[in-house]
Amino acid sequence: MASIEAHNVCKTYPSRDGDVVALDNVSLKVTDSEFVSILGPSGCGKSTLLRILDGLTKADSGTLLMDGRPIERPTQERGFVFQSFNLFPWRTVRGNIEFGMEIKGVPKSERHSVAQRLVELVGLTGFERKYPHELSGGMQQRVGIARALAIDPAVLLMDEPFGALDAQTREDMQDELLRVWAAARKTVLFVTHSIEEAIYLSDRVLIMTPRPGRILADIHVPFTRPRSESHRTLPEFSALRHDIHSRLKAVR
Amino acid sequence: MRISLTRPLVLYPVSIVLGLGVWEALAQVMPRALFAPPSAVLGRLAAMTGDGSLPTALLGSVQHMLVGYLLAALLAIPVGIIVGRSTAIATAVEPILNAVYAIPPVALVPFFMIWFGLYFEGRVALVFAMCFFEILINVLQGVRNIDRGLLDAARSLDLTGLALYRKVVIPAASPFIFTGLRVGIGRAVNAMITAELFFSAVYLGQMLKTSSNAFDIASTFAVIFVVSLFGLACQEAMRLAERVVIPWHHESTA
Amino acid sequence: MSRGKAWALRLAGIAVFVLGWEIAGRIFGDALFAPFSAVIAGFPATVRDYHLFAELAGSLRQLLLGYLLGCIVGIVLGIMMGRSALLDGLLQPWVSMMFVTSIASLVPLFIITFGFGLMFRVTIVFMAAVWYVLLVTYHGARSVSPDLLQTARAFESSRLQTFFKVMLPALYPYILVGMRIGLAHAIRAMVIAEMYVIVGFGGVVYNAGVEISTVSLLGALLTIMLVGVALNEALKWFAHRTAPWYSERQQLSN
Q1: What is the ipTM of this complex?
Q2: Interchain CB distance below 8 Å, A76 and C156
Q3: What residue ranges in C123-224 does DSSP mark as E strands?
Q4: Residue A43 CB partners (closer than 8 Å, separation 6+)
Q5: pTM over 0.90
Q6: How far is A154 from A33, CA to CA, in rounded Å?
Q7: Domain A1-77+157-165+186-252 class?
Q8: Chain A residue with minimum CA distance to C146
Q9: Which class is C52-204+231-250 in CATH?
């Protein structure tokens, strides 16, 4: 559990038709065990922001802090979950989960027990020896989440993790994620383009708009936890969704 | 605008010049009998072209290459299309095809000598054998891999028989057919030389033998170089032909 | 098509082939094309008279040295060229040139330079195999998913760790394919070299070809056919066992 913050982050990409301002003075702060979504349409720079926060990409200017310390490069204090899973195809489920620990030289027995615990946590018991190509999309992403959790990061960064899944699997995975998060209580920064998903999962929703990428609003989600299907049908849920939707539309 | 130093356009000529330079330097150190500098090779190349011996030999070699290649293509393409359209026949033929393809073609030379003699016919037979299976396998693959959707669309438009072949099957398989023709002509050029070395030596093969036996390394390199260049030219010609005949096809891989 | 039906068709294809061989053999006679039954019946004698299996084993052993050298050089260079644009641009023209050079054309030259013995065979096999191993490895090295490399970075993997834990495993299936294709070319080169100087298994084929009866010749050809297929299938099986996640569908043809 830790805090992660960005102050006045700018990032510009050169392109054939002139520079694209991906991020224009973006600031945010996420604190202990918060679940915050960054919501916006495609191309609004939210993935770029996440990558910058992880240290995968460098910002042009601005300050990035984790627990008050500057973020310079990717470390295992932050875990990253990718939209396209990015599992290593030559490693089994267990092998993928243990990857981060291997990098740090964690002894075999400890790796095995941590991996086993996580396999059970994400509901993949019995699939430890399977290869990614033998798993469905939803299962692969569970491995991705387990792999990120295995390094026991303080902050979990998730880049549209359910974007590649079909609608039904997506909703199942949302519940799975909430269940896993309740058990692990990490600080989570979650990027998505789905308004429902953002509201359903988060404590706060940051609305981002594109070109130039800016944070339009910081909206508090008033619902209690644990969240469930019944929350989706609340009139307040609809109202909130509608509110966010119109705010996004107004900026187009 | 910065031109990156690693752009192929910049590097390729640099590489060639550098390589030739290193080669030339090395050749000064090593005995002439075993190693020829590029300057000598180029000299011999010019001389052999100038006195006509090289062009004549090439023209001679090309004869059995072309005959063998064309025969192989003319047979392999229709056979490949017909066999490929029937999944049953294609599956049945598969093990035999792979087995015969595994025989190094040069091993067939004694066999062809018995059947076709030591001269032109024998050489043509070897060229034929080396190209035929290559082209056939590619055509087969092309026909077998035709997108089912295309065939369904054609059938829903009541397209059958010869028209189906002309309008759908052949166009759809043509990228594979051309790949087969391109790889095949490369093999044909190889076969051209192999034939001249293992049957009675003529033309370019004879030049290779004579110059090697005389320890004239420079001439040997020159002939090898010409053969390689010729092979490359043939393959590029095939690529060009493909772009002309089926301009709609985009090669996604190298 | 069910697996059972596919196998039945394949067996049927083989049966038709053998039957066709038998009939053709009866028509043409031993001197031209000995029938299948005669080849099989005469096989023990063929093996005994020509020390067929001993020669084959010897040839394969000699091939091994050149082949393994080719694999090592091909893999190392392929990786280096694949990951460094500078090296790629520098070496590409030379590699491409070597790639189109026919092995047969190199034989007379190599005999003069290296003699008739081990050195000659090692070099020929090396020159035949290395470019194919290099090419496939090169393509693999270029197409290692940048996403996977970035994922490793996200987990704080050092460059060395990334090389051993991500790059090499990602390259492994490509290396296997390259080695399999390289082996086929190595065998071809070995037979060419051996038939030219009449030693080893190639020599057996040559000598058998001189005989009046084609029984021994066809027996030798049948052997190389089966060995070639067996080796290819063995490598394919090995690849499937050790790299089960990799599907060859999108890669180079046989």
Answers
A1: 0.88
A2: yes
A3: none
A4: A210, A211
A5: no
A6: 9
A7: alpha beta
A8: A86
A9: mainly alpha
User: Is the Cβ of A59 closer than 8 Å to some Cβ of chain C?
Assistant: no
B239 sits in the region (left: phi over 0; alpha: psi -120 to 50; else beta) called alpha
Count how many Cα atoms sit within 13 Å of the Cα of residue C199 in the half-sphere of its side chain.
15
Has residue A1 got a pLDDT over 60?
Answer: no
- The lowest-confidence range among A55-64, A81-90, A185-194, B16-25 is B16-25
Task: Name the residue among C90, C111, C232 with its Cβ closest to that of B11.
Answer: C90
| Tally of CB atoms within 10 A around C231 | 16
For C134-151, write each residue's pLDDT tens digit.
Answer: 999 999 999 899 999 999
User: Where are the alpha helices (H) located in B102-202, listed in sequence order?
Assistant: 109-116, 120-144, 148-156, 161-164, 170-198
Contact A54 C161 (CB under 8 A): no
The partner residue sitting opposite A75, judged by closest CB among C156, C243, C245, is C156
Phi then psi for A11, rounded to 5 degrees?
-150, 125
Burial class of C241 by CB neighbour count within 10 A (0 to 12, 13 to 18, 19+):
exposed
**What is the C-alpha separation between C21 and C25, in angstroms, rounded?**
6
Neighbours of C247 (CB within 10 A): 11
Across C100-117, average pLDDT: 89
Q: Tell me the pLDDT tens digit for each residue of B14-69.
A: 888 888 888 888 887 776 666 788 888 889 999 998 888 889 899 999 999 999 99
β-strand pairing of A214-220 with A204-209: antiparallel
Q: Rounded to an integer, what distance in angstroms lies between the CA atom of residue C181 and that of residue A212?
A: 52
pLDDT tens-digit readout, B163-219: 888 888 888 888 899 999 999 999 999 999 999 999 988 899 899 989 888 888 889
pLDDT band (50, 70, 90) for residue C252: very low
Q: How far does the CA of residue C155 sit from the closest CA of chain B (Å)?
A: 31
Place of tokens 């240290």: A55
Terminal-residue alpha carbon distance, chain C: 23
Does residue B250 carry a pLDDT above 80? no
Neighbour tally for C35: CB within 10 Å: 22
Q: Please, what is the average pLDDT of chain B?
A: 87
Q: Give the start-to-end residue ranges of the domains of chain A.
A: 1-77+157-165+186-252
**Do residues B169 and B157 touch, judged by C-beta distance below 8 A?**
no
Q: Which CATH number is correct for B58-245, 1.10.10.10, 3.40.50.620, 1.10.3720.10, 1.20.810.10?
A: 1.10.3720.10
Write phi, then psi, for A61 (nearest 5 degrees): -155, 165
Chains A and B make contact, 3+ CB pairs within 8 Å: no
Interface test with A, best of C245, C247, C248 (most A CBs within 10 A): C245
C-alpha B43/C-alpha B222 separation (Å) is 9
A89 contacts chain C (CB < 8 A):
yes
Cβ(A139)–Cβ(A124) below 8 Å: yes
Strand order in the sheet with A187-192: A78-81, A155-159, A187-192, A35-39, A204-209, A214-220
